[in-house]
Q: What sequence folds into this?
C-alpha cells in the first residue's frame, strides 16, 4: 500500500499519517501562540505604568493564561510535531501506532482547553507555577495532567518510530544529528512529565479534598523539576532545529558529529539540575545542594550550550567558505541570505539565546547572585530571551521552511515573512534589555502596580524604573506585532497560499492528507550515510571557522565581564550570613 | 546536509576532533570551573551568603514569637502597624500575611541581627528595596539569617511572590538608624 509521498523541492519523504499528525500539532501550537500573543498584549500594557490597562484581577488572570499558553502549550505542541518529523520524515519510516498518536493529540487538546477554561472562569489565577497553598479549580490541574499524558504518548510514539526505522533498516549507519537532538528532547520530556505527575497528581487530589496538606517547600522542589525541565525540552529541540536549518540552507555538515552529540549527551545528564535555579533563596535547602545543582554539576550543561554555540555557526561558516565566501573574517556571514526569514529567524534566535538568554541565566542561577535577582522582572526578561526568542523564533524559522515542504503551499505575503524576524527580534530585545534593567532596580515580576496604590505604607521606585518599564512596553508591543506577522503569514499560507501539489481541499492544511494520488511510494529508498568529504580537513592545524571563533570569544568576554559586574553589585548590598 | 543524514563515518565516535573545537571546549571548560568555584569561594570570603538555618514551624507558633517581640520592644505605631526596636544583636521577627509585612522594624546601623521570617498563609516574597535583597518566604518554614544593615535610612519590604488580588498593597518597612 503506497503511503509515502516525496516532496519534489526538498526530497523529504512524508508518511501519510505522520504528515497529518505533524500538521495538526503545528496548527494547535500556532493557536496556542495566538492566544499567548493576545494575552501578552494585556500583560505588557498593564506593566507599562502610564497605560496600566487592566484591573488587578484580570491582569493576574491574563498573566496566568499567557504563561501557560506560551511556555507550555505552544512549545510542547510544536515539539511533538518536531519529534514526528525528526523520526518519521528524516528516517523515511512509517509512524509507529498512529492511532495512539491521535489519542495523545486529543488528550493534549482536551487538557489545554480545560486548563484555559479554568483560568478564564476566574478561580484559577494562580500563575503558571500554581504554588501551594494558593489553590486553583480542580480542572486547572486536571487539564495540565491530561495534556502531559498526551505529550507522554507522543514521546512513546516517537521512540516507537525510531525502533521501527531500525528494524526495517530504513537508514544506514546511525540516526542523523537532528534526530539525535530530538531524541535528547524526548528523553528530557519523559523525565519532565514524570516529575509533573509526581507533583500535579497529589495537587489535583488536594484540590478536590482527598489530601489535606501539601508542603510548600516540597512542592517547589518537585514542581520545578517539571517547570524548568520543560524549558530544557525547548533547548534541546531548538538546538536541533538550528542544526536542521544550517543543514538545509547551507548543506552544512556538523564540524564534528562526536562533539555535537556529546554536547547533547551532556544535556541529558545535567540540564535538569537547573531546576535548582528557582529555589536558591528558599528556606530549608542546604548550600551544598544548591551549589552543586544550580551549577548543573560544574556547569557541564552550560559547556554543552557553549559547544553548540560554536559548532552551529561554525558548520555554517565552513560550508560558506567552501562555496568561496572566504574574504576576511566575516564574508561568510555578510553574504548569508539575510532576506530569507528561515535564515534571519535562525540566526537571531542563536544570537539572542546565547548572548542574552544564556549569560543572564547563568548569572542569576549563581547561588549568591540570585539574592539580588530572585522574583524581580529580571527573571521574565531572561526567559523571554531563551524561550520567546531562542525557542520561539527558531520554531518560526522552521515554520517558514516547512510551509512549502509539509503543507505544500507557497508562502503568503512573502515580504511580511521577510520582515517578521527583524520586527520580532528588535521588539523582544528592546523589551528584554529594559526589563533586565528594571529588575536590577528591584522592580518585581508578577506585580500589578508599581505605585502600590492602596497600600498602608508607601515606596517609590526611582524614575528610571518607570522609564525602563515604558521602553520595555514599547518593545513588547513591537514583539506582539512581530508575532502577529508570523501568524498572518502562516495562517494566510495555509488558507490562501498557492497550492504546490494536487490538493484535497481546504482541510489539507489542518490534518487531512493531500490528494490520494500524491502518495505514490510504498517504501522510500533507504537513507544512505552522508558522502565522505573528499579531503579530510580535521586536525590540519588551522582553524576552519575563524570568524565563528571571534564571535565565540566575544560571547566569552561579555560573559566574564557581566558575571563579575554582578558579583560586584552583590558585594554592595547588606552583609548577610 | 549531514545534520539530517546519518553521519558519513559509521564509527563516528572515533573520528578526530578539529583543533578549533578542542581549543574552544578547553576555554569554555576552564570558565565553567571558575564559575563553579566562585560560589564556594564566596561562602568563605564573601559577605553576602544565606545561612542554611531554617526550621519547620506553624503559623501559630511563629505568630507567638512575633507577638512576644512586639510586646517587649514596641516604641510606636505607624499606619496601624507597631514599630519595634529590638536590642542590637538580638533575634528579630517579621511575618508575611495577606497583605502585610508585620511589624515595622527599627534597627541600628552596622549592628547584626538574627532575622526570622515566615508566612502565615500563602507564599510570599521578601524583597528589601532599594537594597534589592530578595528571599522566598514559605508557610510552615522559619528562615533565619543574620543581617547587618550598613546604611542608615528607610527601607521598604515589597512582596514579590504573587499572593492574590491585594499582592501589590503588601508593603512593609525597616528603619535603620545611625548609632
A:
Amino acid at each position: 500500500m503506497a503511503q509515502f509521498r516525496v516532496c519534489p523541492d526538498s526530497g523529504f519523504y512524508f508518511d501519510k499519517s505522520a504528515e497529518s499528525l505533524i500538521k495538526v500539532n503545528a496548527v494547535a501550537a500556532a493557536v496556542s501562540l495566538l492566544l499567548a500573543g493576545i494575552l501578552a498584549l494585556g500583560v505588557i500594557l498593564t506593566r507599562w505604568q502610564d497605560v496600566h490597562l487592566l484591573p488587578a484581577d484580570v491582569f493576574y488572570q491574563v498573566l496566568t493564561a499567557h504563561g501557560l499558553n506560551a511556555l507550555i502549550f505552544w512549545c510542547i505542541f510544536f515539539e511533538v510535531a518536531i519529534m514526528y518529523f525528526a523520526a518519521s520524515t528524516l528516517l523515511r519510516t512509517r509512524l509507529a501506532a498512529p492511532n495512539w498518536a491521535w489519542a495523545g493529540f486529543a488528550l493534549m487538546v482536551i487538557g489545554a482547553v480545560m486548563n484555559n477554561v479554568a483560568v478564564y472562569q476566574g478561580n484559577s489565577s494562580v500563575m503558571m507555577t500554581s504554588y501551594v497553598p494558593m489553590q486553583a479549580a480542580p480542572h486547572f490541574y486536571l487539564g495540565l495532567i491530561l495534556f502531559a499524558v498526551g505529550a507522554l504518548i507522543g514521546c512513546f510514539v516517537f521512540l516507537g518510530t525510531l525502533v521501527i526505522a531500525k528494524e526495517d533498516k530504513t537508514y544506514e549507519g546511525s540516526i542523523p544529528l537532528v534526530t539525535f537532538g530530538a531524541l535528547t528532547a524526548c528523553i528530557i520530556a519523559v523525565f519532565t512529565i514524570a516529575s509533573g505527575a509526581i507533583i500535579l497528581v497529589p495537587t489535583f487530589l488536594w484540590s478536590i479534598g482527598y489530601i489535606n496538606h501539601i508542603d510548600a517547600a516540597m512542592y517547589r522542589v518537585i514542581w520545578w523539576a517539571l517547570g524548568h525541565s520543560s524549558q530544557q525540552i525547548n533547548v534541546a529541540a531548538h538546538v536541533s532545529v538550528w542544526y536542521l536549518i544550517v543543514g538545509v540552507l547551507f548543506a552544512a555538515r556538523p564540524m564534528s558529529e562526536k562533539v555535537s552529540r556529546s554536547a547533547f549527551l551532556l544535556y541529558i545528564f545535567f540540564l535538569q539540575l537547573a531546576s535548582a535555579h528557582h529555589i536558591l533563596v528558599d528556606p530549608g535547602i542546604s548550600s551544598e545542594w544548591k551549589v552543586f545543582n544550580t551549577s548543573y554539576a560544574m556547569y557541564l550543561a552550560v559547556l554543552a550550550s557553549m559547544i553548540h554555540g560554536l559548532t552551529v555557526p561554525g558548520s555554517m561558516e565552513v560550508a560558506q567558505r567552501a562555496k568561496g565566501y572566504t574574504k576576511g573574517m566575516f564574508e561568510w556571514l555578510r553574504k548569508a541570505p539575510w532576506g530569507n526569514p528561515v535564515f534571519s529567524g535562525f540566526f537571531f534566535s542563536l544570537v539572542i539565546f546565547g548572548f542574552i538568554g544564556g549569560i543572564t541565566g547563568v548569572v542569576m542561577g549563581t547561588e549568591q547572585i540570585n539574592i539580588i535577582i530572585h522574583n524581580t522582572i529580571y527573571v521574565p526578561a531572561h526567559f523571554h530571551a531563551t524561550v520567546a526568542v531562542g525557542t520561539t523564533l527558531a520554531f518560526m524559522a522552521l515554520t517558514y521552511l516547512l510551509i512549502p515542504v509539509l503543507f505544500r503551499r507557497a508562502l503568503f505575503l512573502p515580504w511580511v515573512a521577510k520582515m517578521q524576524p527583524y520586527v520580532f527580534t528588535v521588539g523582544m530585545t528592546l523589551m528584554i534589555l529594559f526589563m533586565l534593567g528594571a529588575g536590577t532596580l528591584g522592580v518585581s515580576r508578577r506585580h500589578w502596580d508599581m505605585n502600590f496604590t492602596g497600600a498602608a505604607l508607601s515606596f517609590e521606585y526611582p524614575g528610571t524604573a518607570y522609564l525602563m518599564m515604558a521602553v520595555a512596553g514599547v518593545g513588547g508591543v513591537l514583539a506582539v506585532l512581530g508575532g502577529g506577522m508570523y501568524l498572518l503569514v502562516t495562517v494566510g499560507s495555509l488558507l490562501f497560499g498557492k497550492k504546490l501539489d494536487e490538493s484535497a481541499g481546504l482541510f489539507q492544511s489542518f490534518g487531512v492528507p493531500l490528494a490520494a494520488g500524491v502518495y505514490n511510494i510504498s517504501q522510500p529508498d533507504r537513507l544512505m550515510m552522508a558522502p565522505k568529504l573528499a579531503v579530510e580537513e580535521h586536525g590540519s592545524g588551522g582553524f576552519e571557522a575563524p570568524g565563528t571563533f571571534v564571535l565565540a570569544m566575544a560571547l566569552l568576554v561579555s560573559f566574564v565581564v557581566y558575571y563579575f559586574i554582578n558579583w560586584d553589585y552583590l558585594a554592595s548590598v547588606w552583609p548577610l550570613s | 546536509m549531514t545534520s539530517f543524514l546519518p553521519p558519513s563515518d559509521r564509527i563516528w565516535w572515533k573520528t578526530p576532533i578539529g583543533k578549533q573545537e578542542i581549543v574552544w571546549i578547553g576555554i569554555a571548560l576552564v570558565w565553567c570551573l571558575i564559575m563553579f568555584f566562585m560560589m564556594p569561594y564566596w561562602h568563605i570570603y564573601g559577605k553576602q551568603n544565606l545561612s542554611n538555618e531554617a526550621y519547620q514551624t506553624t503559623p501559630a507558633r511563629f505568630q507567638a514569637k512575633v507577638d512576644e517581640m512586639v510586646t517587649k520592644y514596641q516604641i510606636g505605631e505607624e499606619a496601624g502597624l507597631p514599630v519595634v526596636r529590638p536590642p542590637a544583636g538580638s533575634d528579630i521577627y517579621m511575618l508575611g500575611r495577606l497583605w502585610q509585612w508585620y511589624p515595622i522594624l527599627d534597627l541600628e546601623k552596622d549592628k547584626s541581627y538574627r532575622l526570622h521570617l515566615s508566612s502565615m498563609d500563602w507564599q510570599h516574597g521578601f524583597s528589601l528595596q532599594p537594597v534589592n535583597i530578595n528571599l522566598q518566604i514559605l508557610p510552615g518554614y522559619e528562615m533565619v539569617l543574620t543581617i547587618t544593615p550598613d546604611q542608615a535610612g528607610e527601607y521598604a519590604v515589597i512582596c514579590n511572590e504573587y499572593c492574590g488580588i491585594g499582592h501589590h498593597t503588601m508593603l512593609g518597612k525597616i528603619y535603620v538608624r545611625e548609632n
